Predict the 3D structure of the following.
Amino acid sequence: MYKKCALALMVLAVLAAPTLGSIRGNLTSELEPDIIGKIDQTDMIITPAEANLWLQERTLWQEHVFWTRMTITSILQNSADRDPVINRLLRNNDDMSETIEPYYGNETAKRYGDLIEDHLLIAVALVSAVRDGNQTAIASANDMWNKNADEIAEFESNLSISLLPQQRKAMWREHLNLTKNETLQLANGDYNASIDTFDRIVEQGNMMADSLAQGIIIQFPERFH
């Protein structure tokens, strides 16, 4: 058991690295990774259960943003791997719903998964419209994406008192804006800029994962301490 916890910590430290310090990855001492058994900035002992949930959420958000970028590239380039890549992206919603099911039940988890699936499908439609230069389809997909993001934010805020609606909405809108910038940069061949944007997407995704995990921990303290 101890060896498994130690291994989980090693992976967590690796996943934590992109969000520590500035956008360009410089570490700061006050934001170093929390370690099981140590005292965090709120004088709480980090438990294995907490670290495991943070690891799960960060892993899924890493997969979310990485497979989204691969999907954008495949669609824009009309690659032969487009459909398999999209199918892999669409596994993300089931995985995300599974992480909250133990705490909120199957019905709530399924609803959450459906909202995330809509988020991913709209992203596919938006990128396809960008590739085709269809301004009407771009505007329609953009409106649907914003509405869906607000629905997800509202849903998440209802899960835990610590997930404030406006804060969660702002985080989702930032995720959308960064991804739209990334899409346009890739479509225009501005690859260096798209890489810089993707670094920001990774960091921001980790922040979204951490806040969701912390919301669950606050909602169910007996499950973690």
User: Anything to note?
Assistant: Helices lie at 2-16, 48-76, 82-89, 92-104, 106-132, 135-159, 165-187, 191-219.
